[in-house]
Amino acid sequence: MLKIQNLNVYYDAIHALTDINIEVKEGEIVTLIGANGAGKTSTLRAISGLVPAKSGTITFEDKKLNGYPAYKIPYLGISHVPEGRRIFSNLTVMENLQMGAYCRKDDAGIKKDFEMVYARFPRLKERMKQRGGTLSGGEQQMLAMGRALMARPKILLLDEPSMGLAPIIVQEIFHIIKEINGSGTTILLVEQNANMALSIANRAYVIETGNIVLEGKASDLLQDDSVKQAYLGG
Ligand code: ATP
Questions:
Q1: What's residue 229's pLDDT?
Q2: Where is the ABC transporter domain (predicted)?
Q3: CA within 20 to 30 Å of 20's CA: 65, 112, 124, 176, which one?
Q4: Where does the chain hold its CATH 3.40.50.300 domain(s)?
């Protein structure tokens, strides 16, 4: 479904991604784990057209994404939940969700998806008229995910959904990610919380200073000694 081949990304002199290869097949949860600054966010931003590829290709359903403008990416069925949520603080919950559907014109379908999002995140329904900025961190993460779902994506790119959240909320968010995948949405999940990410993913890639150093079944990586040492607390 999504294929990244020999991708190189630079920020001026900084070589952020070096010959990255990642594949996500339809229906999978694939996770990209790695430490701070390893290149996880840059990978997602390259897919979404937010940073240019210096070389290499990104294809989605056989369509080349290189050079494709970022605002058009959701029309292809790719939704991005960015690091730090980036919700619209001054807009209400309902308005934030509406923004997620900017690429759609099917009013009846949009209305149905509001109900789908409210069913998946009952707390957003309770707070639909509240401004986004007044929500807790966990609720803001739910809102960012709900907003992305309003585009009815084929694939959801999630950038560190667990960041800054209490363990109990992280569990809830990961449970919801599993559910979203169960209802047919493919997921590429970027995480520093390797334990949680590997426990829900089918396959995983480990990134270190811009290089993919390991890949395999998530269940195998959970047992891998080097992964245990570096990412799972020994
Ligand atoms: P984090 O979890 O901290 O977001 P990450 O794994 O997502 O880390 P990236 O944010 O992709 O890593 O960063 C990869 C490298 O690129 C790092 O060395 C980072 O300092 C650098 N970098 C990222 N964004 C920029 C930018 N806008 N300008 C210059 N360098 C950048």
A1: 87
A2: 2-234
A3: 176
A4: 2-77+153-232
Task: Give the chain's residues under pLDDT 70.
Answer: 234
**Whose C-alpha lies nearest to ligand 1, atom 20?**
37
CA–centroid distance, residue 10 to ligand 1 (Å): 10
The span from the CA of 57 to the CA of 99, in Å, is 29
| Ligand 1 binding pocket includes 40 (Cβ within 6 Å) | yes
ipTM for the predicted complex comes to 0.94
The identity of residue 96, as a single letter, is N
Q: How far is the CA of 15 from the centre of ligand 1 (A)?
A: 10
In the CATH scheme, what architecture does the domain 2-77+153-232 have?
3-Layer(aba) Sandwich (3.40)
pLDDT tens for residues 168-217? 999 999 999 999 999 999 999 999 999 999 999 999 999 999 999 999 99
**Ligand 1 nearest-atom number relative to CA 160:** 2
